[in-house]
Amino acid sequence: MLAACQNFLLSSFILLTLLTGLTSLKIDRAEESWIWIQRCLLQAFNHTSGNQLKKWELSVTPEGFFRLRKYFLSGKQEYFSFHLSRLKDINYNGTSQWGDLIFKAIEDDIIVQTYNDPKGNIDSMATILSIPVLDMEPERLDSLRNALIVFKH
Fold it and tell me: Are 150 and 85 in contact (CB under 8 A)?
């Protein structure tokens, strides 16, 4: 009886250790992914794509939130936000020198807000967000796609 209890405790300890290790591995992979996603997007974002931007802010949080805020010379602001788990697909239109990354959400999961817009301030939801980028080689796009997959689960 004592041997059976010891075997059970040893088995439970081993299982718990394995599960903890797998969870830690998943957390490390998610952390590496969001850092890489943010760095890739910050380096690739084409802020000179004719939009007359005064400044812009792009971030991806460790929890998987994508946020982009554009400040135009006219005073207008645009804000986009979505959780990477709601991402259905990512496509690319353009050449390896310049083009557009197209994020497609599962449903209308992308928050879109405008401020100081002559047409009025608008709060809406969208399925697609297109952002202009530079130097998006096929390998870099594949790496970005793979990093984004980590947040889909």
Answer: no
Domain that holds residue 62: 29-152
User: Is pTM, for the whole model, over 0.85?
Assistant: no
**Is 14 a domain residue?**
no
Domains: count for the chain: 1
Residue 20: helix, strand or coil by DSSP? helix
Per-residue pLDDT averaged across 68-94, rounded? Answer: 94
**CB-side neighbour CA atoms (13 Å) of 62:** 6
- Residues 83-111 have a mean pLDDT of 95
- Residue with the bigger pLDDT between 133 and 119: it is 133
134 Cβ contact partners less than 8 Å away, ≥ 6 residues apart? 44, 45, 46, 97, 98
Assigned domain for 102 exists: yes
